[in-house]
Design brief:
This protein is mainly beta and 461 residues long. It has three domains: 2-69, no CATH class; 83-174 and 373-459, Galactose-binding lectin (Jelly Rolls); 184-361, no CATH class. Helices cover 4% and strands 37% of the residues. The protein has helices at 155-158, 307-314, 412-416; strands at 2-3, 7-12, 14-19, 26-29, 41-43, 46-49, 66-69, 90-91, 94-99, 105-106, 112-116, 128-130, 136-139, 160-163, 167-171, 173-174, 184-185, 192-195, 201-202, 207-213, 216-217, 219-224, 235-241, 244-246, 253-258, 284-286, 325-332, 334-338, 349-354, 375-383, 397-401, 404-410, 423-432, 435-442, 451-452, 454-459. It has a six-stranded mixed β-sheet with strand order 10-11-9-36-30-33. The radius of gyration is 26 Å and the shape is globular. The two termini are 39 Å apart. It holds the Pfam family Malectin. It comes from Gimesia maris.
Amino acid sequence: MIASENLLTFRSGAAGFYDLQSQSGTGNFGGFKSSCTSNLVVANGVLNAPDYTRTCSCSYQNQTSLALIHMPEIEFWTTSQLGSDAKSAGIVKQAGINFGAPGDRSSENGTLWLDYPSVGGRSPDLKVTVSNKKHELFRHHALKVQSSSGSDGMNWVAASGIINPQKITIAIQQETNAPPLPGIPIAGVEDDAEEDSKGQVKLHSSDLELGLDAGDPQVVGLRFSEIPLSASDQLESAWIQFTVDETGKSSSQLKIEAEASANPKPFVESKRNLSSRKRTKTNITWSPPAWTKVDAHGAGQATPDLKKLLQEVLSQPGWSKGGSVCFLITGTGTRIARSYKGASSGSARLVLKMKADTSEQIDLESKQSPAADTKHYTVKLTFTEPDEKVAAGQRLFHINLQGKQVQNSLDIRKQTDRAMQSLVLQFDEVAVQDRIELELVPADNSRYLPVISGIELINEN
């Protein structure tokens, strides 16, 4: 490793560097042989890369020496590797979300802009949810975009974006160090799945739509392993605890069944792998209340008592302690819960309460998150018109922030007078408790769907 006042250089597959001035992350120069040792040498503003590769056999394109000077207007992206600090619990103080960007980048005011979806490598784990799963992304080279006046309209933020996200939710309370919830967790990606009305099974889903998925009835399967129960154990009650991934207020009626098997197999992506399983005679109906808070995991997200279902499974021939149980959920309406995306992803958990358990019992109400203090944020929204064919008056949309309309019929092209020009709208003293909700609603007379490039949050407290 070679160090200077503003730059660290090292070998990282290709020639690698870390910008100490902006602390924006690790970047790489590809396309030339960088040798097996560090050969990026900083000298008086010039980055020298002498050829150290006479005995190298790596098949890089160019074997040569280079001298590089800093050109900040050139598009260059990095990955942010902030270690444990990137995933620590706490309140978001300052951050940017850059939709469709190829990596992370810091701005002059100290905001670390994170790519969404994350494609550039490891990044801090901000919880961002986009309600429209069928959204589209766009990206242009940053040199094609003109910045608005001042330093806020950064062309590289406006060079990419998302089309028709509908509602964007950003959690400001990051709780990755929070203690795990009680119960038996989903153990892997093959233990929760969705099957649509055509029998197509999907693992690795970003969430679980209980009931209907965009109006399509589906089966949701949950498989819990290593159940510590024998057929003779005295079970007082049992329930599945979900965590909210997206809010939902419409009426919902769900039916919960179990697979009538002492050894249900993991789910696979074969046709009707869920619906073809033999069901228990017993079923439990559940009418969940409105889910109004993302990340909630309290009484409203807990199923009714599933004791009778479990007892029927435990009575199956061949059941033994440590076996697995599979639940199948169908119904009407929609509740969207977290799926398995790792041990700390907030996926479903099976909670068991034994009659002989005299310890302090779990109070479902206590699992609801306490009311958060109100904080105030400056919210900056970056837009650009990415399509040169769109004229003024053709892409119109309203902006709702925290449930209130803050902009009526925004016309990006009219305000910027050209496509590929950044536009920044700033909203001060936005009251926030646990999340920021931004909704883009097409105007009735709009020919094109809403777009947005970036969201910057600065905690005023």
